[in-house]
Amino acid sequence: MKLSRQAMKESGKITIRLHVNGLVIPVIINREDEPYYREAAKTINSTVANYTQIFSEKKSESEIMAMAMIDIALRNEQNKVRNSVALYDDILLSLTKEVEEVLDESASASH
Question: What sign does the CA torsion over 4, 9, 11, 12 have?
Answer without folding.
Answer: positive
